[in-house]
Amino acid sequence: MTGFGIFLSKELLEHWRTRRLPVLSIVFVAFGIGSPLLARFMPELISALAANDGIVIDIPPPTAADAVAQFVRNLGQTGILAAVLLAMGSVAAEKERGTAALWLTKPMSRGGFLGAKAAGLAAVLATGIVGAGIGGFAYTGFLFEAPDAAGWAPMCVLLLLQMAAYAAVTFLGSTVTRSPLAAAGIGIGLLTVIAIVGALPVLGGWTPSGLADAALAIGTGEVPEQLWQPVAATTGLIVAALVASSVAFRRQEL
Amino acid sequence: MSATAIETHGLTKRYGDVLALDRLDLDVPAGSVFGFLGPNGAGKTTAMKILTSLTAATAGTAAVDGVPAGDGEPNRRGLIGYLDQAPQFNGWMRGRELLAYVGRLSGLRGGELDRRIAETLELVDLADAARRRIGGYSGGMRQRLGIAQAVLARPSVLLLDEPVSALDPGGRRDMLATIRGLAAHSTVLLSSHVLSDVERVCDRVAIIDRGRLVTESPVGDLIDRFAQPVYRVEAEPATDMALDGLVAAVTGAAWATGVERDGFVVRVFVTDDPEAGGRLLALVVEHGVRVVSVERLRPSLEDVFLRLTGRRAAESPGIHDA
């Protein structure tokens, strides 16, 4: 991992300078704040629209649990998309541009290069989820009652873990191909496979998809039906993707 | 630093059916400025990429300062400074920032890092542009920055692939002088299509063709050994008949290997026969050629290259080397 720390600082500066970090943070904070807003006002909006057509819809008053559910849904979708978009060019773009060769002829190991790339990616996603988490927590407390603080942070960690899984697989695609688009294809392909497997009754709990259910339960103060299974499966997937990236990159021609 | 800075033995690289390097044996003495010549596709860049561990050899070995190059160890030890033939940078970065990262990766810190960056920027004439984004640099500036990042940490071996190809004549002259000066603390392996540049700065050269080493020698020895002496005879106008006679007489002479005529100028390629010059002058007198000048041209590396490879070095200049 020679050169890891120095190259990580270059990665973080790059995420900042190329606006990826600020834009993603703003988007995530917007979703964090928007989720309780949506949960709070959507029923009223639907009732008002239906009333215009003379239809009466009896929607129960929204609760903090609805806000949490909205938060998990929004972050689950947006976060995964952001993870794929961020990871697709991480290594492939440096290879495509020729800058990987510049850095790898310096006193830096390929492991250090790859590790810094992965850590930079994780840092950006973590920053986004922290922003979203703080925004969502504050606005849920403002519009409803204060959510369970003890459950909110672990819920965000599970959502981050879910995003990290998609990022890791796309990162593997970015390592083995020279094209960010091909890497995105691999990430989206996996997303599709996981969505299909996640819909199956037994196997579903053993995929990153299962993390969303666990996160929702923890965020609303309930005990999740399955926790360690999706956590273990997702962690295993991340580790496997990173190890495979490292093996593929070790002897890759640049 | 060992006596041999770069050595390759039986270095072979195959891309599918294409043999890019064919059992290349090379020894580059430490402290030399070593010209690495060959037509496009000869395998120069491939050899450099193997030395920098960007590409793996199919067979054979390569070492830098005695350290095997296959797994990137020479890079990790900071032994190599490398300039790609088309250097690429992160466009969002500023020139000085790039050098700071390169310096820190090479173990430089604090005042030493700042001093080395300032010196290097001055060396490549980029001090005024150091705080500008690299994305806005011209081709020549990018090439100078490429040289800067290669030399910043004063590696023991510099691999420079076409280091002055994007520079204007003035920049080219200055950079060649700089490269010559780098030999004080680095061994330089330099590839270039411009053989006059190589002749100006290199102590030794290796010529490769189709992945194979054709010859390797000090520049002067190579020219003495392979370049054919050439005489240039310029006649006064209105001496067509006399010149026709001279050309006819020279053609077929045992000591002449070729003759070219362009208006009132005749170029005569001769063998290594020390009497050839005298015999040519005798023919000039014999045929009554009214001479403006007769001179023996200094053979160049270009002549050697042409003779050994059958191609000019600058052929297909737009095509990058394999």
Taking pLDDT < 50 over at least 5 consecutive residues as the criterion, the unreliable ranges of chain A are none
The span between the termini of chain B is: 30 Å
**Main β-sheet description of chain B:** 6 strands, mixed
- Reading the helices and strands of chain A in chain order gives HHHHHHHHHH
Count of runs of 4 or more consecutive helical residues of chain A: 10
Number of strands of chain B: 14
* Amino- and carboxy-terminal Cα gap of chain A: 19 Å
Give a written overview of the molecule:
Chain A contains ten helices and no strands. Chain A has helices at 4-17, 20-52, 64-88, 92-97, 99-104, 110-143, 149-176, 180-198, 209-219, 228-250. In chain A, α7 packs antiparallel against α9. The radius of gyration of chain A is 20 Å and the shape is elongated. The model of chain A has no long low-confidence stretch (mean pLDDT 91). Chain B has helices at 44-51, 73-76, 95-105, 110-123, 139-151, 169-182, 195-201, 219-226, 240-250, 276-286, 301-309, and strands spanning 4-15, 18-29, 33-37, 59-64, 67-68, 80-83, 157-161, 187-191, 204-209, 212-218, 230-235, 256-262, 265-270, 291-297. Chain B has a six-stranded mixed β-sheet with strand order 6-7-8-3-9-10, with helices on both faces. In chain B, strands 2-1-4-5 form a four-stranded antiparallel β-sheet, covered by helices on one side. In chain B, a hairpin with a 2-residue loop joins β12 (256-262) and β13 (265-270). Chain A binds chain B through residues 2-3, 6-7, 10, 13-14, 17-18, 97-99, 101-110, 251, 253-254, and chain B through 49, 52-56, 72, 75-78, 80, 82, 84, 86-90, 92-93, 97, 101-102, 104-107, 149, 153.
